[in-house]
Amino acid sequence: MKTKKNISILSIDYGAGGTERVISLLLQHLVNDYNVTLVLFYNYIDYEIPDGVELEILSSSMSRENTLFRKAKDTLAVTFKYHRLIRRKKIDVSLAFLALPNIINGIMAMWNKDLRTIISERCYPSIMYKANISSRLLANYMFPYFYSKNDHLFSNSIHINKDLKDHFNVNMPMSVIYNPISVDENLRKLPEEIVTTKIFRFINVGSLYHAKNQMMIIKTLPLLEKNNFQFEHAGVGEMESEIRKSLKELEVEEQVTFLGKISHVRQALIKNDCFVLSSRTEGFPNVVLEAMSVGLPVIATNCMSGPLELLNDNEPVNIKDGEFVQCKYGILINVDDTIALAKALTYLKAHPVVRQKYSLAGFERAKRNDLKIIYNQVTELIEG
What we know:
By secondary structure, the chain is an alpha/beta fold. It has helices at 18-33, 68-89, 99-111, 125-128, 133-146, 158-168, 214-220, 240-250, 265-270, 286-293, 307-312, 338-350, 352-367, 371-383; strands at residues 6-11, 35-40, 54-57, 93-97, 116-121, 152-155, 174-176, 200-205, 229-234, 256-260, 274-277, 298-301, 325-326, 331-333. The protein has 2 domains: 6-180 and 370-383, Rossmann fold, CATH 3.40.50; 191-367, Glycogen Phosphorylase B (Rossmann fold, 3-Layer(aba) Sandwich). α2 (68-89) packs across α3, α7 packs parallel to α8 (240-250) and α10 (286-293) crosses α13 (352-367). The longest helix is centred in the N-terminal third of the chain and has 22 residues, at 68-89. The radius of gyration is 21 Å and the shape is globular.
């Protein structure tokens, strides 16, 4: 009988984010084929950890709210602790997600010559890591050296890989493995259920912060017929008070429902007529894939990266200001174009046949990211 390899999954936390969602899906299968240890910087857990997966927390004090100096000190301690864990558990393959774990994985590769190290970049670097000085320093000076020490990098977008090569001098074997989804034929909005309705309900799911840009949706509401559109948002975040203030100023409070943090995202999606992604930047928007997997038509900003790949097989489109483009699997608009969003929502409301088309097309597109298919691609990397 073949001995199972010992693998570790290194991540900052296991909270309700897109990267963590991907890890949670992969763990369901990895635990059957490997001895798996989930290693987190700190104890922040939202998703279920499958039976058989060991959990290790590297720091009880590390926090996203700490100062830069404290974070640097904590990171150094975490690095040595992870090194000892690799030796103690005789880890064969270390798989890391996101920038700081990826850098630490590069250090592990230098310190453990027999260790196979794989890293995964989940954001579009040129946009995501320019937010503050520490992020810029990390990307510009650490990526070229430490990323390239690893055996392989996979991201969830061809645009991410190109950006890493062109702007961060990351030279190493790279591939693209898109985010997985569990497609359930019994949990979807059927095309025949899509009909003309007086009130058109649309939803956005995600943390309320600058990159997700829900303020774009709020600014669109006054451009819509007030009694005919209703917006729902699922999630929490640092911009909630600012958004609520804007709703009051624009006098559109009655058109918005805040669901807060929810565990059953798909059930919330199905109750709506359309999903709207308003982001300024993404890696690969999981929630767009989830919306498509339940047959919900999608309107998305053509941000870097992910929407073009998901909604038009990465075939370029020319989107004029104030207009939308009907793609293969959904509708694309420019970032921050409230006029285009208002037009797209009004169009979908008036044309249920188009929504039926996108419901079916999106569901079929989501099947290409089925968990079993994506899992096989990940195991090929693990096995080398």
